[in-house]
Amino acid sequence: MKAGEVKKQVVQEPPPAAERVEKSADSRRRKIASALGRCIRTKGFSATTLTDIAIAAEMSPNLLRYYFETKEEILEYYYRLMSDRLMASILKIERATPEQWLAEFCAFSIGSGTDRAALSLLIETFAVAMHHEGLNKLKARYDNFMARIYREFFQWAGTANGMAAHDAAQLARTIELGIKLGAVFQKDFNARQAESVFLAEMRRLAGLAPVRRTNRQPFGV
């Protein structure tokens, strides 16, 4: 800067009032959704009331009802956030080789990327979706996404015994949900074991060489 020149300061204008209000509203909706998640983990969805959610969100029930009229509306919003995050994360998994993608996918969807509390919430959501149109549509959207991901994987990696990629995808999704149920209800079935079982089953469906196991014990021990 030359002598005698005055440095101009760039003053950033604040966002429009409407934009600030919308960001604040979205932040509160997310806070309410997170509070619902904590309530479900503690006492389940059916036993949770709007008052419970308001207390967990540290706001009055009247303020909560300004954003959501029912707890089902909150669950629908929460599931949309959760499913959007899951789909975005799955799409980011690098597709270098089928083996590499599969290992990362299994780790994210069942192993270290998913804890028992999150799985419990997912199952609660599926149960409510049976009788709630909005949630049912969101679940169908996520199911269709997963079906496409599995189908594309088997088209890329191949399948065992000439099975059609579509059929292998349906079977893989069924196995995934079954293993997730086991991870929730079987206390001695941890996330690492669930990931290992799922990876082995997926490799079998794709006709990939099985992962070598160590520390094997005699059958029945």
Radius of gyration: 23 Å
Overall structural domain count: 2
Number of helices: 9
Strand tally, please? 0
Termini Cα gap: 80 Å
Q: So, CATH architecture of the largest domain?
A: Orthogonal Bundle
What's the layout of helices and strands?
Elements: H1 17-43, H2 50-56, H3 61-67, H4 71-91, H5 98-109, H6 116-129, H7 133-157, H8 165-185, H9 191-206
Helix pairs in contact: 1-2, 1-4, 2-3, 4-7, 5-9, 6-7, 6-8, 7-8, 8-9
Account of the 3D structure:
With 221 residues, the chain is mainly α. It folds into two domains: 17-69, Arc Repressor Mutant, subunit A (Orthogonal Bundle), CATH 1.10.10; 71-206, Tetracycline Repressor, domain 2, CATH 1.10.357. Helices cover 68% and strands 0% of the residues. The chain has nine helices and no strands. It has helices at residues 17-43, 50-56, 61-67, 71-91, 98-109, 116-129, 133-157, 165-185, 191-206. Helix 1 crosses helix 4 and helix 7 (133-157) packs across helix 8 (165-185). The termini are far apart.
Task: Give the key terms.
single chain; Tetracycline Repressor, domain 2; elongated; 2 domains; Arc Repressor Mutant, subunit A; mainly alpha; disordered C terminus; 221 residues
